[in-house]
Write a structure and sequence with these properties.
- The protein is an alpha+beta fold and 359 residues long.
- It has helices at residues 34-39, 43-57, 83-93, 100-122, 170-180, 192-197, 206-212, 222-241, 245-260, 265-272, 278-287, and strands at residues 62-70, 73-76, 129-134, 147-153, 159-165, 200-202, 293-295, 298-300, 330-332, 339-341.
- The protein contains eleven helices and ten strands.
- The strands form three sheets. A six-stranded antiparallel β-sheet has the order 2-1-5-4-3-6, with helices on both faces. A two-stranded antiparallel sheet has the order 7-8.
- Helix 3 packs antiparallel against helix 4, helix 8 (222-241) packs antiparallel against helix 9 and helix 9 (245-260) packs across helix 11 (278-287).
- The chain starts with 33 loop residues before the first helix and ends in an 18-residue tail after the last strand.
Length: 359
């Protein structure tokens, strides 16, 4: 299969040097793209995105994505798009507001995934795995999550990517990488860009890899995440039937109640099982302020500048568009609670004057 790898070469020079320079910051709506769900009514994909959204809200220790090869390119089992194209769309959508480091990092992500699928396409040994290390960026970067991804083949021929939250430092990542690949650069000064540009191919077992790369012990456990998703099931179902910002706000507030009030979980489950009172309950949840959290897909809660959001990957930006008039659901001003027509083009709150975050 090695000779087929040459088919995978994608030239990152298509993104010109001018696109790496800093641009004017563009103010975006809330990070979860409700309008995208409306335009793409794919229940399985929407459910997966909402579950990922909740996992990132509480920093779940492990998240997974399944890919399949179509020819020499990988695509998620949830979409019909090659993932390399998703990354390219994310890069294009970042052209107007990314800083210098993030623009370079995003090109490194493009190079990274291209290498990952090259390695796995050229080497179909079932023991072959690829590790991608993604340390947080510098302080002014919107990529502040610290994690590593493990790509491996499943018994049915899919490619499973498992993302592990981590507390490892750059030096610890470097030492772990050096133990797997002696050719990995161990000089001082390597940064997040170098790690992304150099995914590691190995035939070590998953257990051996996890002995070298430690997970974040403070992250939300997988079992707890599963229990949360079960509890949120009725709210996710309602959102899928009618994607709206109010349904998304209700889901986030319910999830917070479930995680932070374990003694009330029985009562919460009962409330979601009553179809008669559910509409009123959803309204009550939606009208409450939503706790501000930065996640892999941006800010949940308050509407903030893109420069204040924290992301995992440039692919998270793939569905972002200029959406100022796309959605007309109301949302409360994060400062005073005054209801604003979402997408109305309002530049400041008419009640308290808060700028940029209310429209």
């Amino acid at each position: 299969m090695a000779e087929r790898a040459s088919q995978l070469t994608v030239n990152s020079s298509q993104f010109t040097e001018n696109e790496v320079s800093p641009r004017k910051v563009h103010i975006l709506p809330p990070s979860y793209d409700v309008e995208f769900d409306r335009r793409n009514p794919n229940p399985a994909l929407i459910r997966k995105n909402l579950e990922t959204d909740l996992g990132e809200r509480f920093n779940v220790e492990i998240s997974q994505v399944e890919y399949i090869f179509e020819g020499p390119f990988l695509k998620s089992t949830q979409t019909n798009e090659f993932f390399i194209e998703t990354i390219k769309r994310g890069i294009q959508n970042r052209r107007n507001y990314a800083g210098t480091h993030d623009r370079i990092r995003e090109l490194a992500e493009f190079e990274n995934f291209n290498k990952v699928q090259n390695y796995l396409w050229a080497d179909d040994n079932p023991d072959t795995k690829v590790i991608t290390i993604s340390p947080r960026g510098p302080k002014d970067s919107c990529y502040q999550h610290n994690f590593f991804d493990l790509y491996e083949r499943t018994e049915d021929g899919k490619i499973l990517m498992t993302r592990y939250a981590s507390q490892m430092t750059v030096d610890q990542f470097k030492n772990g990488a050096k133990q797997i690949d002696l050719n990995f650069d161990s000089e001082l000064g390597i940064d997040d860009l170098y790690f992304l540009q150099n995914p590691i191919k190995t035939k070590l077992t998953k257990e051996e890899i996890l002995e070298l790369f430690h997970r974040d012990q403070k992250a939300l456990k997988v079992e707890e995440h599963r229990a949360l998703l079960f509890a949120c099931g009725p709210l996710i179902d309602d959102y899928i039937k009618d994607p709206s910002n109010n349904h998304h706000r209700a889901l986030l507030n319910f999830a917070d109640d479930y995680i932070f009030n374990p003694e009330a979980r029985g009562e919460l489950l009962i409330r979601t099982q009553n179809p008669e009172s559910m509409p009123l309950y959803l309204t009550q949840l939606a009208t409450r302020p939503v706790r501000y959290v930065v996640t892999g897909c941006g800010a949940q809660g308050d509407i903030v500048s893109m420069t204040n959001n924290l992301f995992y990957s440039v692919a998270d930006f793939a569905s972002f568009t200029q959406r100022e008039s796309a959605d007309t659901n109301d949302f409360p001003c994060p400062q005073c609670g005054h209801m604003i027509i979402y997408g109305s083009g309002t530049k400041e709150c008419p009640s308290c004057g808060l700028a940029a975050t209310c429209g």
